[in-house]
C-alpha cells in the first residue's frame, strides 16, 4: 500500500485563459485550452489532495472530486484566489492570465460608425496573481508556489530568470507552440538547483510527475 502523496493537503490551481471585456459581446483573451491546468487538478486529486480549481472560460469538464470556481477576467481570478488562499498548502498558477485589460469597456455593444472610424481602446495592467500569492508565502513556505511560463524561445535562460523574478521555488517552463491546445507537452522544471527536463508525454502523465515533484518538495520543507 502506497500512501497518497498529497493526502491531507489543500491545493489551489488556476487554469485556462482570462477574458477581458471590450463591450458585452467582445473581448480579448489569451491562447489556452485549460488542458494542462485541469490535468494538474486531476493528478492532485488522485494524489489525495483537496483541490480547488479557479478556472477561466474553457470547454473542459471538471475533473472528478475537484471543486471548481468559474471566473472570466484576471481581476475576478485574482479576487477568487485571494479569497480562497487561507489554509492552502500549494498554489499552482497554470492560467494564461491576460497582462492587460481594457480600461474603458463599454456597457453597451459598440456600433460600427458610418464614417469607418474605429474605437480607441485604452489598456491598464492586470494584477499579477502569482506574484501576489508569492508575496503572501508564510515563513514556513506555504503556500508552496508553482508558476508556469510559456516562452517562444530561449526557454532555459528565460525560465530560470522568471523563477527568480517571480520569487517562487518552482517554475514549469514550456514552449508555446508545442503546447497550446495539444494533448501532450514537454516541460522543464526550474528550481534552486537548476533545471530538469520531463520529456514529451501526454499532459496527464506530466501532471502526475509534477504533482509527485511538488509533494517531494513540500515534504522536505514541511513543518505541518
Ligand atoms: O510573467 P508571465 O506572465 O510569463 O508569468 C507566467 C506565470 O505567472 C504563470 O504561472 C501565470 O499563471 C502567472 N501570472 C499570473 N498573473 C498575471 C500574469 C501571469 O498569475 N497577471
UniProtKB/TrEMBL annotation:
It comes from the Bacteria. Pathway: Cofactor biosynthesis; coenzyme A biosynthesis; CoA from (R)-pantothenate: step 3/5; Cofactor biosynthesis; coenzyme A biosynthesis; CoA from (R)-pantothenate: step 2/5. The keyword Cytoplasm does not apply. Its cofactor is Mg(2+); FMN. Residues 11-224 are annotated as: Phosphopantothenate--cysteine ligase. Its EC number is 4.1.1.36, 6.3.2.5. Keywords: Decarboxylase, Flavoprotein, FMN, Ligase, Lyase, Magnesium, Metal-binding, Multifunctional enzyme. GO terms for cellular component: phosphopantothenoylcysteine decarboxylase complex. One of its GO terms (molecular function) is phosphopantothenate--cysteine ligase activity. Residues 6-216 form the DNA/pantothenate metabolism flavoprotein C-terminal domain. Binds 1 FMN per subunit. One of its GO terms (biological process) is pantothenate catabolic process. CTP binds at residues 99, 109, 127-130, 148, 162, 166. It catalyses: (R)-4'-phosphopantothenate + L-cysteine + CTP = N-[(R)-4-phosphopantothenoyl]-L-cysteine + CMP + diphosphate + H(+); N-[(R)-4-phosphopantothenoyl]-L-cysteine + H(+) = (R)-4'-phosphopantetheine + CO2. In the N-terminal section; belongs to the HFCD (homo-oligomeric flavin containing Cys decarboxylase) superfamily. In the C-terminal section; belongs to the PPC synthetase family. Catalyzes two sequential steps in the biosynthesis of coenzyme A. In the first step cysteine is conjugated to 4'-phosphopantothenate to form 4-phosphopantothenoylcysteine. In the second step the latter compound is decarboxylated to form 4'-phosphopantotheine. This is Coenzyme A biosynthesis bifunctional protein CoaBC. It comes from Pseudoduganella violacea. The gene is coaBC. The chain holds residues 183 to 406 of 407 of the full protein.
